[in-house]
Amino acid sequence: MILTGILLAAGSSRRFGPSDKLLHPFRGRPLIAHAAQAMRQARLDHRVAVISNPALSVHLQGFQVVRIVPAAMADSLRAGLAAVTGTDRLLIALGDMPFVTAAHLDRVARTATPDRPAASVDDGPPMPPACFPAAWLPRLAELSGDQGAGRLLRDLSPDALVAGHGLLGDIDRPGDLPG
Predict the structure, then answer these.
(1) Which of 26, 49, 87, 172 could form a disulfide with 7 if both were Cys (CB 3.0 to 4.6 A apart)?
(2) Is the peptide bond before 129 cis (omega within 30 degrees of 0)?
(3) What is the tens place of the pLDDT at every residue in 133-156?
(4) pTM given for the model
(5) Could you tell me the sign of the dihedral formed by the alpha carbons of 61, 50, 19, 29, in that order?
């Protein structure tokens, strides 16, 4: 089985302020470095990162980097999909989720089946990191706007959900960073 990971990191960071939040220091490293490290440690055959800021590239060793202009989440996802060939499963993670671990990514990937995706969950609806079987990739390619893959995850059965146990926090505003 070939497992490919896509790290989505091409947002405009409007809510964070004038600087790119993914380069903001967090626990001694840029925010993007945490998500990238988790993906490097996960059991993936290929890694793709979709970015809009070329300054992020230095933190993405081991990734095929796809650069786009800042766009809606579905545009980033489609750009990543265009770079993926011959995969059996696609693991999607977000660059602004610094607490996600390689172990969590691996659990999500193992929970997906050839017929249905798997997703993470904490105290809300299913969310990334999520893993999609190859048969679902055309559905991902049809998404548009800022909804991303969430629309495809909301009706997953409980056995397709992996508890995040506090790992799923994302950083949208400076106040989201723990003290």
Answers:
(1) 49
(2) yes
(3) 999 999 999 888 776 788 899 999
(4) 0.92
(5) negative
